[in-house]
Amino acid sequence: MTESVKKQSKKEKSLVIVESPAKSKTIKKILGDGYQIEASYGHIRNLPTKDPKTDNLGFDVENNFEPKFEIIPGKKAVVKKLNDLAQKFDNIYLASDPDREGEAIAWHVRQILKVPDERIKRIEFNEITPKAVRYSVEHPRVINMDMVQAQQTRQILDKLVGYKLSPVLWKQMGNYNLSAGRVQSVALRMICEREEEIEAFVPKEYWSIHAELEKEGKMFEAEVSKYKDKPLEKDIKNKEEAQVIVDYLSNADFCVSKVTNKTTKRKPTAPFITSTLQRAASSKLGFGVQKTMQVAQKLYEGIELDSGAVGLITYMRTDSVRVSDDAMSMAKDFILSNYGEKYYPETPNIYVKGKQNVQDAHEAIRPSYPDRTPESIKQYLDADQYKLYKLIWEKFMSSQMSNAEVANKSIEISAGDYTLKTGTSKVTFDGFLKLYNDSEEEKDNITDSKIPNLEKGDKVLCHKITPKQHFTQPPPRYNEASLVKALEEHGIGRPSTYATIITVIQTRKYVEKKDKALHPTILGRAVSKQLVSQFADIMDYKFTAGMEEKLDKIAEKKAVWNKVLKDFYDPFMEEVNSVMKTAHKINIETDVKCPNCGKKMVVRTSKAGTQFLGCSGYPDCKTAMSMNVLSDQDFENGQNQEVCEEKCEKCGSDMVFKTGPYGKYMECLNENCKHRKPYRKSTGVKCPKCGKGEIVERRSKRGTVFYGCSLYPECDFVMWNEPINELCPDCGSLLVKKVLKKGTTICCSNLKCGFKKEVDVNAE
To answer: Among 325, 408, 427, 671, which lies 20 to 30 A Cα-Cα from 698?
Structure first.
């Protein structure tokens, strides 16, 4: 303990107010008995949470957008406790997180404390270590009002957009569970537009030609890459063109025309910032963005070790890649001691992100104590904490290590007018790769043993030439990691908001996650379409990114907060008022038709917020169906492959039956296509609507069985109960089988008819 902290602890008592009680033990252990640690439990005041259908937004537009804050319901007891404690202490340290939200929390706490200004001090630390915490106590500062105003501006903007756009959706869609948001709606647009790209994508066929070659008994493969020195990039369009090349090469001599040896250096990448941590945790650990931040929060606030609570990582909400001199020095000592001199670079690796000043206050995400290896503390961590800490530790330590060296060999082989290419890569010095590899593909493990020693002029023997069919692929759907990357690249949102954005659009049922991919729902697409068509600026990527830049400028004293709001407010409200005047009720139509009256089914929402399909003919027709009707069965890797007669509708190749956890399906045998479609068990009953297809058994994504026409989507006839090959004697509609607890009943599919008869069990 430093002398100043020792003296203070003898003469005075201090109160330290943090955001989360989880930090308390860690900080108490560092500061000792002279300090009492209490938590505000996050924000204690907020803009009023009044009914958004009123104009009470909590700020005075006519008075320069002056905000009017109120104590959050449920926080009055916390406020009273903090005030009572503050009267008893000589010093009050506000130790909320070192970002805009943390600065705002500190300001709000100061506003409710009824003590003189001179007793209140603002402190911040990027890591909860003895050195960082004690330094902050010895070097307190005043609250940064520029950061506070930037946070308040963001808060007002978000509330303004949400509270003014949401009523537009309510009026147009008749659903009070809908919401719009300044950032969330733009993220939704991004997902919807990607889905449109996928739907509009038309696969294009192309072929590649591969030769199986030999030299001195060693076999290797090369691919045709050039024709008369002109690169071939997906230029072989069909099987006929491919066969011409195969026939030509079958009569050609193969000779090595060029061998290129090159050694390259792979540099380590910067330690994690929030977005790169979220992406790496998603791709390498399978963690969702929210889970990543929750686990990281625990590691930052403190984990109980033998020596007590210890903060294991630095603050996890940061855009900075800077590393402190102390951390670099500790990393250097560890690398030299454990890996040797060749694994530490001649000059330390220093990272800068864009135009960022390397002397900024924040650091990258790194271990607080680099010498605490993941294995050394594994017994104190749960499985998720260990995985994430290991990821952060290895990424940081690798960022301080030497470059890796890779020997690359590229070989060109001439065969008449064509050139074939092959090559190898071999890691000759692993360097930072000893700990961490950013590459998704482990190409570095390929060795020269895969290809014989070839020199220019060597003749090689061709054993086989194989044409391979391929199809261009649509862009992939976003997953949480790639959406974070896209938002960051567009400058939309900030590290502290990514997890919330992704959670909100899923909670609102605008987006659903399937096999880690984010799919827009029919509701999400309808909401996005309405917002984009009516509020072009708010939904524009550049406009949203520009607003983020303005918030940054407010924090940097380069912009005035209420002027930023004024410039936004007037045109925004003019646009909102214009839309509200002409807004009319719309229905979100689907392709599903009502099995009873034939009208289109539309998306509706119950009072409890559950979505379902209801007949657009309501109230005359009150038919309702589950949303699951819109979804096909999910596929998993299946077994029990058997040949079927059907050909692939995408590439024309043979299809095979497979059986997965959700039942039987068909899959294309073409490795580059792998198109899958459900196997529909036929009931043997002709479709009453189109008269062409048969009614087949289908299954929703949740496994619920229903029945529909085999020619879907050309014919959208569906029904819940299994039909039988009989017509109702009263009205002529199809009869269906209903299996109930009391027994099986044969009923008319026309609900207005009412015909039914019991099944004679003995007759069966």
So the answer is: 671
